[in-house]
């Protein structure tokens, strides 16, 4: 994707020029403008790639359809036309959901104050408020900067006052989710405003609603993200601890899973959130004590054909295996065989291969007895097959190298069998192809007993060879 940016007006002028100066048809003019800017390395992801529509009022400049729809919504809000609002909100939300470029252009042209005002107008009408929140959620998707303090307070108040209403709760949480993704300040503000007990409370209150449980679990997980590149240090770890220690988050999530034993989508979401909360040794143990490990292992076995679920469960097992006692519980539950099966079954999926190798790597760390179980179950061979299947995926190569090293670092008897599987060539190739693999590949080769050649870099000056 290109790194250069242009304004919507610049793109629109190029389209108009193609139509006027070169007599192109509208669709051809747009295609030509796209090719022109993309050839210059311009990122057009936020640009509406269409011809502006004639405005309804005489003398008014042409506008894109999303802005014409916004104008109609704005007039309905300004006139407090409650009878018109449902249709106007629905039309605007539908266009926002079509693509980021539409809602970005709307956001740049004052859409947030209009939608926020619509939410305020709808406060006494439940059905209208559902539409207003749905529209707000659509507008915030991908542009959380739009939300202000008044919007945050509106959402928190709604979640508090309407906590018994599953649909309203879901609509509010969706807005919070979109407002907090890739936005650290919004996360911190919502946590200070009391969002965490509202999210865990929603899971308990509406434990029979798959949509509420899944969305609330995702929102909790987003509170533990560190994905805002504008902020050097976030509060992800602190938020995770607050969810567990102050809001009984682990118990809430694991109890919720019991109502959805046949719903892989909900269970996958719960697993992903549990993995984000496994930030302390005692938290990992608590997940096991509460029965979380049993449902993960069962889910992995039952949903082995569903790659999205498998990936999330492997990530959760990898996370809780940071505790040495939990490692034993995973192995005792037959987890190693299921992990190897998952890798082999989804060998074409690099993310599953990465997570599977990483989970086995954690189980093997400081546990020679586990290394024997992994070897007997075909773990080393599965890792090498993953390396062979994904030579360009640095994450797969790195985790597989680390697994091989952990298998042989305290169990040298495994070195020869692993070498006979072709490990040396695969690890050497990984080291040569990926700079990030150099250290772990070198360590794996050394522990396998291979001769490791130091990589040298010629700087162009006599006597200036550097490793």
Automatic annotation (TrEMBL):
Q: Provide the species name.
A: Sclerurus mexicanus (tawny-throated leaftosser)
Biological process terms in GO annotation? hematopoietic progenitor cell differentiation
In Swiss-Prot or TrEMBL terms, this protein is called ARMC6 protein
The record's section on InterPro entries has: ARM-like, ARM-type_fold, Armadillo
Stretches forming ARM repeats: 291-335
Q: Which UniProt keywords apply?
A: Repeat
Task: Supply the SMART domains for this chain.
Answer: ARM
Q: Does the keyword Kinase apply?
A: no
Please name the PANTHER family in this protein's record. ARMADILLO REPEAT-CONTAINING PROTEIN 6
SUPFAM superfamilies in the cross-refs: ARM repeat (SSF48371)
């Amino acid at each position: 994707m290109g790194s250069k940016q242009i304004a919507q007006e610049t793109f629109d002028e190029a389209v108009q020029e193609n139509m006027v100066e070169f007599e192109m048809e509208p669709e051809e003019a747009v295609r030509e403008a796209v090719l022109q800017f993309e050839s210059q390395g311009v990122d057009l992801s936020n640009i509406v790639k269409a011809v502006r529509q004639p405005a309804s009022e005489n003398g008014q400049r042409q506008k894109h359809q999303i802005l014409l729809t916004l104008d109609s919504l704005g007039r309905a809000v300004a006139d407090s036309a409650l009878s018109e609002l449902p249709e106007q909100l629905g039309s605007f939300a539908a266009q926002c959901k079509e693509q980021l470029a539409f809602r970005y252009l709307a956001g740049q042209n004052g859409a947030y104050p209009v939608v926020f005002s619509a939410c305020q107008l709808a406060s006494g009408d439940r059905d209208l408020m559902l539409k207003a929140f749905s529209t707000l959620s659509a507008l915030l998707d991908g542009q959380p900067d739009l939300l202000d303090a008044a919007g945050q307070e509106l959402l928190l108040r709604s979640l508090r006052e309407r906590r018994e209403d599953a649909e309203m709760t879901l609509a509010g949480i969706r807005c919070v989710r979109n407002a907090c993704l890739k936005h650290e300040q919004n996360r911190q503000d919502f946590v200070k405003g009391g969002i965490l007990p509202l999210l865990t409370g929603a899971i308990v209150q509406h434990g029979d609603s798959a949509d509420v449980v899944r969305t609330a679990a995702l929102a909790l997980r987003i509170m533990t993200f560190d994905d805002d590149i504008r902020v050097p240090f976030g509060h992800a770890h602190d938020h995770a601890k607050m969810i567990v220690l102050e809001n009984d988050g682990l118990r809430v999530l694991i109890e919720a899973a019991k109502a959805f034993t046949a719903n892989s989508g909900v269970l996958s979401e719960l697993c992903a959130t549990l993995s984000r909360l496994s930030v302390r040794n005692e938290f990992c143990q608590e997940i096991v004590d509460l029965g979380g490990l049993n449902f993960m292992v069962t889910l992995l076995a039952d949903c082995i054909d569903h790659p999205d679920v498998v990936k999330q469960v492997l990530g959760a097992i990898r996370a809780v295996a940071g505790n040495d006692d939990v490692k034993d519980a995973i192995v005792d539950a037959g987890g190693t065989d299921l992990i190897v099966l998952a890798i082999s079954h989804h060998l074409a999926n690099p993310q599953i291969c990465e997570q599977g190798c990483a989970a086995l790597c954690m189980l093997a760390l400081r546990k020679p007895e586990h290394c024997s179980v992994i070897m007997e179950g075909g773990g080393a061979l599965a890792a090498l097959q993953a390396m062979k299947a994904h030579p360009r995926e640095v994450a797969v190569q790195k985790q597989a190298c680390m697994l091989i090293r952990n298998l042989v670092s305290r169990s040298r008897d495994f070195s020869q069998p692993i070498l006979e599987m072709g490990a040396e060539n695969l690890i050497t190739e990984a080291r040569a192809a990926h700079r990030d693999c150099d250290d772990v590949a070198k360590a794996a080769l050394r522990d396998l007993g291979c001769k490791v050649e130091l990589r040298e870099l010629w700087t162009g000056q006599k006597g200036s060879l550097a490793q």
